[in-house]
What does this fold into?
Amino acid sequence: MTLGILKLADHGMMRSIVRISIIVAATLPHFSCVILQSARPTDPKTPVVAPEDGYGSLDRLPFKEAWYGMYVKDEKVGYKHVVIEPSGLNFKISSESTLRLTTMNKTNESQTREKVIVRPDLTLLSFETLVRTQGQDLRMIGRSLDDRFLVELMVDGKRLPAEFPVQGAIYHLSAIPFMPCLKGLAEGRTYTFAVLSPEKQGMQKVEQKITRVKGEPGPGGAVWSVKNSYGRTTADLWIDRKGLTVMERGAEGTLVTMLEDESTARAFREKKGAGKDLAFDFGLINVSKPIPYSERTKFLKLRMSGIELSAVPDDHRQRVSRTVADPDRGFEVAIRTEDPAAIAGQPKQPAGESVKKETAPTATIQSDEPEIVAQANKIVAARDPDLDRVRKLAQWTATNMRHSMNKAITALSALRAGEGDCGAHARLYTALARSQKIPTRLVTGLVFTQDVGFLYHVWAESYVYGWIAVDPTLNQVPADATHIKIIEGEPPDAAATLVNMIGKVKIDVEEFK
It folds into this structure.
């Protein structure tokens, strides 16, 4: 192992395990509640065919149980088991899953259990979800009440209630693979419906377009394909003649769910040990021209290809431009670190709703939690200017948080554990800064690490007379110019942008100083 890799591991810079964990755990269950045919065999002489006008009700489905595997880049990373059964006049969709990902030679495992109560037409009545990862639990429950849907999130021993207005029918994400066979499979049909999205604090529209598979049957004997659009996330389902989803592909093939038998799924559950390393087998972007002393870099110009120009934001510190007509040659990104002295004359606070949003507490960034507020007040003095507060908070986080691959899912759990990866560092710093009324947001992107290349990473930006990149893992204020921003904040559908990049991005370093 090279010195550069050792340095990377010590700093916990690798964000891909956290981001891919979130994407796989969130995106695949949303679209991949694949239902396996019931144990009772079907007479091959009288094959079941989904009626063109749809089954109409869950009690008419010829399949009631599911076992399937989840894959990232052809590497099996998990399995899921789903069962549909009556619950009075309604139905219960129960699921359990295990997700196991390896990065930096460390394997992290998470389990998810969910119970969803729906009407026979799949409209949502209630749900209960439990996610357990690295010894931490996150529980969410919700229920329909007239024209409202009540949700309660329980994390770090706290109960966080929320209430969403409802107009018309709403569905759970687990309903997505069932909708085509319930409503009807026919060439060119489209369906649009609303699913509850607690992460977005409201409803999210899902659009489905059905196409018949041309020529030979598709994977698993599929005769239908369904393109799902959910915000900026897309996924393709393959469905057989019964209406059974047999395969799902998301993120342009990066994430795949495959229908499989029970013994194959259970074999993964029993198997322990590391798989392919997501940091170096999937996430590493090599460059032919290394950047010595990257932490001192104030200016960087590079060319990116393999992705669309729109995937990389143009902002106050990085400029994105297509300098040649040939799209295969990609586009240029020029990054220059901020000069706090040069922006001192700008407005002290950002304009509009940004102040409210980027100083507000959230379920994972608990800036109003007494433990967070008390810790911030120990680090800074009331007379400190905002820039000094930012530097002190970043330095304290980098110095006092032990660097590990432990995935603390909230700022409070990171503070209590005293350790975590770069995501934990960034969430804790963001909470500390927001508790001091300093607008701060998370940033996910790429960073260069000595002798290795670019790897996925997370840091923050704080507003002090202008936005400044802050890396509380590496104790950099401002962060060096090898930090390439991809995603600002943590909107769920923006994660699709990042996972779509894995294994596709190429970077050529052109100039640095």
In short: The first strand starts at residue 36 and ends at 37. The radius of gyration is 24 Å. Residues 1-44 have pLDDT under 50 and may be disordered. The chain is about 20% helix and 35% strand.
